[in-house]
Design brief:
about 625 residues, alpha+beta, D-amino Acid Aminotransferase, Chain A, domain 1, Dna Ligase, domain 1, 5 domains, five-stranded parallel beta sheet
């Protein structure tokens, strides 16, 4: 077994790898940019090395800096995680040439599966079913249009070097083909430096089925069954599960056997995933499931496979990289129960899923039997604008699919994140969708019904009453009675909006402080009402707070300055828009906490105005 491991990644996957490596007694080395100096993966490793400024092109994507860190710390091996350099064959070869262990597949295997057209040809030769389409060298627009007509609309135009939803266009009729082709090629050239495309038949009821495969240096290859990743938003996975609903034993055997053939065809070592597209219009059938691509790394959704098989796939990676044979033979692997994973992101579904950055003042995860949280952040950490805004992977395992859904919902509904916004409420609604519950999801579900799922929930009267009670000090005032029914309604500010809430009969008229209301995966800050909110800024006792995370672009006043009601105080840039904050009444600027260029959190005090005498 290797003795020391450098993790060439960050966030939750770096923490995930470190956790297993430490359990195996391996010394762990983290690398970090300036933005990640206090990140959880840095805290979790035995030692850490700075590799550059925050932008990935100056840190995590610079192979020379990764290798320099490995040399400086005496690392024996490098684990790339996923993303960044994980599927970079040139970097993998450089690691091997440096005499280090590469915890991943051979560079030639990465290269073989790196281009969609070459990989598809290879799969056809290996007897793996592929989607009908054209993947030749002729890129003449007129020729490609003719091929699309022959395949039959709708078709997908896909960049051969594409990934992550980029370099892909759906064309439903011939009249739109040429414009879509130009757009696709332009995006592919910009994103991947390669504008070559292929044409594929578009499946009308597509399901995304993938198979976890594993190979060792002795020629052994096994599968660890399938995952269903059909719930997607703009080609990005949202919720994944294992096994796939509706997959019968014979179809599973056929698909998994095809995945093993695919891996063997490229002499595969380590963890990999064979992705298939299935026509789910008549359920899952072996003759309607086709190879799509191979990911030559560990997948984001690997925990659901771990949960149903009882295997630690990172441990498998480290053992195989150390020269050991696979820990289990095919006949020793079986499916136990059902597992689901939801990707909890720092994003605001109500605002077009824009990333929500800032400090995680509150970060609490709900709990449920069979629950698991894989995260790379902690309460008090910052969600940076430089990287993927994932907060955690929330995983639940149950005896059957219904139990897994219930447990995952329970964890999400019991979670509280603030002031950063998350997609937790969106995930809860997705789990409750009738098609998801029935196991008949296709990749277009969120495209059709996502607007309703993104609608923010409203806190219940019961939750607000309980929160208001927490703000209202208990007192032995006259008229106090235990279990008194609500007798009046009080005014409060809920995320800057005035609300009236039923109050219990044993409070006094002096609510103070603030309390977080959490329900349905959403969090709202409840504060005492003093003066009404103006122009989106939360106002209380003349104090004006930021309505959202953002950057101060202009400050129009100074301390001790006299202001009049409605006078412009400052401008906040947030969510790519400018927001003007004004004086709520005539008065004096008693306190000024805003400075041009400063980044501010939601609910941060910006200005306090004292009323004119």
């Amino acid at each position: 077994m290797i003795k020391s491991l450098l993790i060439a990644n960050r966030g939750e996957i770096a923490c995930r790898v470190i956790r297993t490596a430490r359990r195996l007694g391996i010394r762990t080395i983290a690398v970090h940019s300036d933005a990640d100096a206090r990140a959880l993966h840095v805290r979790s490793a035995h030692e850490a090395v700075r590799i550059g400024p925050a932008p990935t092109r100056e840190s995590y994507l610079v192979g020379e800096k990764i290798l320099a860190a490995a040399r400086a710390t005496g690392a024996e091996a490098i684990h790339p995680g996923y993303g960044f350099l994980s599927e970079n064959a040139e970097f993998a070869q450089t690691v091997l040439d440096a005499g280090l262990v590469w915890v991943g597949p051979k560079p030639k295997s990465i290269t073989a599966m790196g281009l969609k057209d070459a990989a598809k040809k290879l799969m056809q030769e290996a007897g793996v079913p592929t989607t009908p389409g054209y993947l030749g060298e002729n890129q003449d627009p007129a020729f490609l249009k003719a091929q699309a007509s022959e395949i039959g609309y709708p078709v997908l135009i896909k960049a051969v070097a594409g990934g992550g939803g980029k370099g892909m266009r759906l064309v439903e009729q011939a009249a739109d083909f040429l414009d879509s082709l130009v757009s696709c090629k332009r995006e592919a050239s910009s994103s991947f430096g390669n504008d070559v495309v292929l044409i594929e038949k578009y499946i009308l009821s597509p399901r995304h089925i993938e198979v976890q495969v594993f190979g060792d240096s002795y020629g052994n290859v096994v599968h660890l069954f399938e995952r269903d990743c059909s719930l997607q938003r703009r080609h990005q996975k949202v919720i994944e599960e294992a096994p796939a609903p509706g997959m019968d034993a014979s179809t599973r055997e056929a698909v998994c056997a095809a995945a093993v053939r695919a891996a063997k065809s490229v002499d595969y070592e380590g963890a990999g995933t064979i992705e298939f597209i299935a026509d789910g219009s008549e359920g899952l059938r072996a003759d309607r499931i086709w190879f799509m691509e191979m990911n030559t790394r560990l997948q984001v959704e690997h925990p659901v496979t771990e949960e149903i098989t009882g295997q630690d796939l990172v441990e498998w990676q480290l053992r195989v990289a150390s020269g050991e044979p696979l820990p289990r033979r095919q006949q020793e692997l079986s499916i136990n129960g059902w597992a689901m994973e939801a990707r909890l992101y720092a994003e605001d579904p109500a605002k077009g899923f824009l990333p929500s950055i800032g400090r995680l003042d509150v970060l609490r995860f709900g709990s449920a039997r069979g629950g698991r949280i894989d995260t790379g952040v902690y309460e008090g950490a910052e969600v940076s604008p430089f990287y993927d805004p994932m907060i955690a992977k929330v995983i639940a395992h149950g005896g059957n699919r219904e139990q897994a859904i219930d447990r995952l919902s329970e964890i999400l509904e019991g979670s509280a994140v603030y002031p950063v916004r998350t997609n937790a409420a969106f995930l809860v609604k997705a789990l409750a969708h009738s098609q998801f519950a029935a196991g008949t999801v296709d990749t277009g579900l969120i495209g059709r019904d996502g607007e309703a799922m993104a609608e923010p929930p409203v806190p219940s009267e019961a939750a607000l009453t309980e929160a208001a009670a927490a703000l209202t000090p208990k007192s032995g005032v006259p008229g106090f009675r235990l279990n008194a029914a609500p007798r009046r309604r009080g005014r409060f500010l809920l995320e800057g909006e005035t609300v009236e809430i039923a109050l219990t009969g044993h409070g006094i008229d002096d609510p103070r402080g603030s309390v977080l209301v959490t329900e349905k995966g959403q969090a709202w800050l409840l504060k005492p009402w003093r003066k009404q909110a103006l122009h989106g800024a939360v106002v209380g006792d003349g104090a004006i707070f930021s309505p959202m995370p953002g950057r101060i672009v202009a400050v129009e006043v100074s301390e001790k300055e006299q202001v009049t009601k409605g006078q412009k105080l400052l401008t906040l840039e947030a969510m790519k828009m400018e927001h003007t904050l004004t004086a709520p009444f005539d008065g004096v600027v008693a306190e000024l906490k805003a400075a041009p260029g400063a980044q501010v959190q939601v609910e941060a005090l910006l200005v306090r105005i004292e009323e004119a005498e």
